[in-house]
Amino acid sequence: MNKNKIIAIDGPAGSGKSSVAKMVAHRLAILHLDSGAFYRAVTLTFLRNKIARPFNGPKVEDLLRCTEVELRQIGNTLQVYLNSEDVSTEIRLKEVTACVSEVSESALVRKIVTAKLRELAKSESVVMEGRDIGTVVFPKAEVKIFLTATPGERAKRRYLEMAKAGIDADLNEITYAIKKRDKIDSSREIAPLRQADDAFFLDSTGMTMDMVVDSIIREYNKSLNKSD
């Protein structure tokens, strides 16, 4: 019997999904399946092969079918390999950042990447975060979390992060941007943000990161008891 488990964490921008997913993966010693890194690797492939917008059609499909992306958890670091080449640093280049959003919005790209992510999750337990993980990518995930916080709380966190990094920011502008992003993400045509019917709703307003991680791990442990 397959004992692998999938933890799907969805939620709006600024809810701390990525940081929480990394901590959960570390605590449980399982793979953090970073879909963002995967899409960045695909974007790098398109740039190298001079694939132009729109990102669809037979040429794109053929390229994606023969593109292998591997994610390796080495200690606390996620290494990304593109056709056996370590591209962990290159996928963070500004050229990739500038294109990755548009690439990830392509219906064809999402379809093929989703299939590849599902294939990766067959061999080991994983935690993955995003906006459609529990609804589209892994609708049968054993643990589904919808992680959120009030727009004001999320804006405050983003503001503090930017201040810590020495970046000037306006809290009101950040709050407005987050509310705008929420509206866009929840109303987009492809894979909109929504809570899966069987997801555990977790409002992290006023909670520390450790408290959030503890709550998710409790849900994970409950799933283990159910399968015994």
Specify Rg, calculated over alpha carbons: 18 Å
- Secondary-structure element sequence? EHEHHEEEHHEHEHHEH
Distance separating the two termini: 11 Å
Which structural class fits the helix and strand makeup? alpha/beta
Uncertain parts: none
Oligomerization category of the chains in this entry: single chain
Q: How many strands? A: 8
**Largest sheet composition:** 5 strands, parallel
The tally of helices reads: 9
The shape is globular
CATH superfamily descriptor = P-loop containing nucleotide triphosphate hydrolases
Mean pLDDT figure: 91
- CATH class, named Alpha Beta
Helix content: 40-55%
Give a brief description.
With 228 residues, this protein is an alpha/beta fold. It contains nine helices and eight strands. The longest helix has 19 residues, at 209-227.
Structural features, described:
- This protein is of the alpha/beta class.
- It has one domain: Rossmann fold.
- The chain has nine helices and eight strands.
- It has helices spanning 17-28, 35-48, 58-65, 94-104, 107-120, 133-137, 151-164, 171-187, 209-227, and strands at residues 6-10, 31-32, 69-74, 77-82, 85-86, 126-130, 143-148, 200-203.
- A five-stranded parallel β-sheet has the order 2-6-1-7-8, covered by helices on one side.
- The radius of gyration is 18 Å and the shape is globular.
- The mean pLDDT is 91.
Write the layout of secondary structure elements.
Elements: E1 6-10, H1 17-28, E2 31-32, H2 35-48, H3 58-65, E3 69-74, E4 77-82, E5 85-86, H4 94-104, H5 107-120, E6 126-130, H6 133-137, E7 143-148, H7 151-164, H8 171-187, E8 200-203, H9 209-227
Helix pairs in contact: 1-9, 2-4, 3-5, 7-8
